[in-house]
Amino acid sequence: MDDRQILEQIRELADEEHRLEQGHAGDGLTDEEHRRLHDLEVSLDECWDLLRQRRARRAAGQDPDDAAVRPETVVERYQQ
User: Fold this and answer.
1) 59 CA to centre of own chain
2) CA-to-CA distance for 1 and 65, rounded, in angstroms?
3) Is the pLDDT of residue 68 over 70?
4) Cβ proximity of 54 and 66 under 8 Å
5) What is the pLDDT of residue 80?
6) Which of 33, 36, 41, 77 qualifies as a FRET site for 15, CA 20 to 30 Å off?
């Protein structure tokens, strides 16, 4: 996956996240919707992390294609 594809994936995930949140403004989410929202948040964090890795590798003169998606247990521990 190249940077353009990662950014497109981020856009799609963010759009779905916004639709889910806005579609229930004032109403509560179902358990399934809460799970989906969590999954979207994790996927977004993983995509942003992968994009940052690729950019850092490129800046360091390394192959950005060697970057890999890190698991939820790693990306969810980053401080924002």
Assistant:
1) 22
2) 8
3) yes
4) no
5) 57
6) 77
